[in-house]
């Protein structure tokens, strides 16, 4: 069961001092759709949250790292360190069979708030694909048009919601399941303690996260509905995504069959294409940050490392297993780091482990990344190996997504040849797996239980940090 990963900063997240010590200690060269607003007059629901109670699976948790301008990610604080887990092993044997399920794809949620089923027009997973001789119908991630700047500052207050159970906790605060008193839909509210954000030097990235989420609107991205603050806390109202993390599903399955990995990779590709079209680098792609909605489609969550970068940036942040070599070597980098990370994600989905993982310290992972030698298991499809070799490459003149054709080069690769991109963008297909949501809307059974907050929210007092978060 997932443990709410994408909402509160993980304990495994490293600060700049920790990262510097790691690098200096090693021999690494670097040592030098329609949605509903909580207000009754608007419409739709959902949110990102996932608990990283990443149990005993050796190849699990991806260690976050961040520098002085480290991103405020928000993950559960009770997780083990993925990259330093000495028992991480490469799973052997055949892939576990993936439960195949037919689900009804949510084209849109009616204003009444009820999920409608579409069975007549919804394709099965086989219909994501078309025969390779057909002309490919291209759908860009940018198809989900960006709305005009949404008003989210001070849009809500505690009085608008009924607080329910805690979905996750972390070093900054916690995430609550809440129900709107206006439209009765369920949301997730992330509550961040301002004093902790300031203490951990996460002011810039907390503001960045809010700014980035306010700019984007896409079927495969989490939605920010509104924010506010009081004397002690920051509040962010976001989708409640019932199905938990892709990470948990991957660990149960050990690795995904080729069509399943392709389905999830294709949805991520459209989301990255959309973000890049708005000059946003995501910088934290991994299974823990991919949530499943009740129909089995993805939502990318945790924008703590996201940043608007029209050209290049130098910030060292992310998860060791997923860092591109130009990030590790402290060079300037651009949006192509996300395409590198897509390659790592596809590799992990197909193999059950990341290509540069090492049982030692993260520094060993960095050294492996800089060496750049990838061993592809023999069970991988040759088209997958070809795609991965063009994504997981240090040569930026050869990395797909960074070439003249941009994201179209990724989408037009033979491994994706069967994907019908426009249908996928509309969610006009069935996902390969449907989460076991039992209780209807507001079912939080996929998330762990936590002790509840004892300090009441909304208490009056001196707001000494409020000026640092002007957009809230």
From TrEMBL:
It comes from the Eukaryota. Residues 161-416 form the Protein kinase domain. It catalyses: L-threonyl-[protein] + ATP = O-phospho-L-threonyl-[protein] + ADP + H(+); L-seryl-[protein] + ATP = O-phospho-L-seryl-[protein] + ADP + H(+). ATP binds at residue 190. GO terms for cellular component: cAMP-dependent protein kinase complex; cytosol; nucleus. Residues 417-472 form the AGC-kinase C-terminal domain. Residues 43-55 have a biased composition (Basic residues). One of its GO terms (molecular function) is cAMP-dependent protein kinase activity. SMART domains: S_TK_X, S_TKc. Residues 109-149 have a biased composition (Low complexity). It is an enzyme of class 2 (transferase). Residues 1-156 are annotated as: Disordered. This is cAMP-dependent protein kinase. It comes from Aspergillus avenaceus.
